[in-house]
Amino acid sequence: MHRIDLTYQLGGAETAPANIGNALMDLLFAVRQHGSISAAAKALGLSYRHVWGELKRWEQTLGRTLIVWDKGQPARLNEFGEKLLWAERQAQARLAPQINALRADLERAFAMAFDDAAHVVPLYASHDDALGALREHAVASAKLYLDIRYTGSVDAIRGLNEGRCVIAGFHTRQDPVPGSLTERIYKPLLKPGLHKIIGFAQRSQGLIVARGNPLALATLQDLRRPGVRYVNRALGTGTRVLFDELLEQAGLPASAIAGYARTEPSHAAVAHAVAAGSADAGLGIEPAAHDHHLDFVPLVHENYFLVCLKSTLDLPSTQALLAILRSSPWQAALSRMPGYAPAQSGQVLSMRRVLPWWSFPARKARG
User: Given phi > 0 = left and psi -120 to 50 = alpha, else beta, which region is 100?
Assistant: First the structure.
């Protein structure tokens, strides 16, 4: 089985081919069409030496001859060359609709790149359903394309600090506890004066449980009961940080939770595990429970924040995102999502007020 690599060319409309081109097939078709290497080379605008050398190179690569090289006779395709060209033309004919659709998608994507009114925001963020809704809303309303990569909150902020994205998304409890695990993890990554916090949403996190909550799970203590199977989120995710913090505050060791070591990559995956019956509970967001027809036991109210570097706050793309977040249509759409509400959406907030982890000496009054 030979590997197939696909490439494309970016150019004016007049240069776009009608199908996916291949240099070897172009050579074979030209030889068959024009009856000799010299005539094929002339038709392709290439030298005889180049075409002859390429055909020989391809024969060596494929381990088969392609041309009947009879001395004193015009070159022609041998049986394998004819079959190879036939197979390629057959595939092109069968795949024409898919090829045209792929080309149209690429052309639309590049058209956006050349549209001065469109913007792209690379965004790393903790998994969140509202961000997915925002991505669709932003494209439809303002030609703003959110290039979202879902990763853990910790990795998202690190990605921002390392220049791999322009905006990061993370979440914390609305009532941050001094000295909490959340503070110990996020505080070293965020620097007042360097970062700017942007309001996005409030949301609820709680236990995703089976329909009707047959085990009557209501608190973390209930997860210790014999036979209760928990499913966790991966290290580095904001939800894992939250769960570990709640365990710490409740005085519960991780070893007391059956299933603590089992992890899933998203809220939806946690809900699927519960719906499939392989777990009894997992910490997650309310929409994930609703989407899988499960019950939800709220435990914590959170603020979901976006954060950017101060130096990128005035970028046109960042300003376009802030305008969408402040808009009434977006905030109305967010309010319709289960467990969500706007929370100073699109406002640039004081880091010291929303994350009271830093204390600075008061400025002395001037005499």
Answer: alpha
224: buried, middle or exposed (CB in 10 Å: 19+, 13-18, 0-12)?
A: middle
Pairwise CA distance, residues 313 & 62, whole Å: 54
- Give the pairing of strands 167-173 and 340-342: unpaired
From residue 311, how far is each of 96, 165, 240, 307, 351 by CA, in Å?
A: 47, 13, 30, 12, 16
Interval 225-251: pLDDT, tens = 999 999 999 999 999 999 999 999 999
What are the helix and strand counts (H, E) for the chain? 13, 12
DSSP tag of 176: P
For helices 129-142 and 316-326, the axis angle rounded to 10 degrees is 110
Query: Is residue 18 over pLDDT 60?
Result: no
Residue 264 structure tokens: 């899933």
List, for residues 68-113, the tens digit of each pLDDT value: 977 777 778 999 999 998 888 888 777 777 877 787 777 777 777 7
Asked if 311 and 193 touch (Cβ cutoff 8 Å), the reply is no
